Amino acid sequence: MTTTCPFSWTEDLPPRIKENEYDAVVLSMKKVNRFGLTTVESQWRLLIPDSREKIQLSGYCNLGPTKQAKIHPQSKLASWQRAVAAFTRGNPKHVTLKSFREYWFRVRVRTVTRNAQGPLHDRDQYSVVDDILSVGGKLSDLSADGLLTLPMTQGESSTPTLSYPSCIPGLGPLRKDALTRCERCDELTAFSYGGHARCLLHARERADEEGQG
Length: 213
Ligand SMILES: [Zn+2]
What we know:
Elements: E1 20-34, E2 37-47, E3 56-65, H1 76-88, E4 103-112, E5 114-115, E6 118-119, E7 126-138, H2 149-152, H3 160-163, E8 167-168, E9 172-181, E10 188-193, E11 196-197, H4 200-212
Antiparallel strand pairs: 1-2, 1-4, 2-3, 4-7, 5-6, 8-9, 9-10, 10-11
The chain binds zinc ion.
């Protein structure tokens, strides 16, 4: 017998993992208002070899009181811009939030143990991406056979190609190449059909649509 809780959660608490250095990619990065501060909130996917777990963590760069539009050169975001610029040999001031999604990074993951009110219960602690240590490389140069093969897979199969349709009518045969993002949802994938990158979900969905139509 199950009873339904009268309140539903807005989302799950982020996972808590071992404090360490990890490889990771940026899923999104946007400016938000958090606790009255202008903050750049980033969503990260950790690239953990031989793990099927999709661990997603947030990262926060506080920019100061809301309405302030300029970035302080000592801020974490400016530091992250310099990390990208050091890799591209570009101007850190020209590094946009969007461009962070073009690279994979070495990052430091930290456990959040307190908030503004004080220490957090052990059960309420969670992990965040604390800092970018360096740019690992361009996402497009990262081989699907490397770090990302397993984190991208879903379900039971040990090789991703088993779950991808071998061909999508109207698009073409399955191709595996460099890491890119699904055209439909931005999910990381190394698989495409006739030049159209598809994640597992959207490869299957498309195949089903075509199969019925
Ligand atoms: Zn997709």
